[in-house]
Write a structure and sequence with these properties.
This protein is α/β, with parallel strands linked by helices. It is built from six helices and six strands, in the order βααβαβαββαβα.
Length: about 190
Amino acid sequence: WAEATPEGFVFSVKAHRTFTHRRKLGASEESLRAFLGRLSPLGDKLGPVLFQLPPKLGPDLGKLSAFLEKLPAGLRYAMEFRDERWLVEEALSLLREKGIAYCIVNAPGLRTLPEVTASFAYVRLHGSESWYSHRYTEEELRTWAEIVRSLDEKVDETFVYFNNDYKGYAVENALTLMALLKGAVCGG
């Protein structure tokens, strides 16, 4: 894959749910290293590795801290919380200390918190009205363009992903957001 993609292309990888949903952050260091080692063929094209916690996993700062300690240096990581009780300064501070990006989300029932905890920002847009099937309006995307511009002022790089893939909305919305960020979409 790395060889088949153009220069400047970056792969972002979502870690397997074994680490987050089944093991609930209790995975062994060996299993984490084995998984992350399999990403090495991507070389310089490897972007952030996302760990998405399940909605029913409430905050456990000790468990989070122990998990973060197991992550090998040299890679970029992002953490997506699906339970708002994680959105406390103590959890964000743990991410900040380790240079791990808090995943900024837009999804039904979850608060959008444009918080920076690493040298890069990581954004996932699941849909504001419904999970995976919401088609973002131009007005919503203009708001996100402003958020992304604001993030860009604080970080070296910003990664934005659309996870509203039903009916191809993700591609359409990503292209519109890119155009807005380049200033190519005018009007109201």
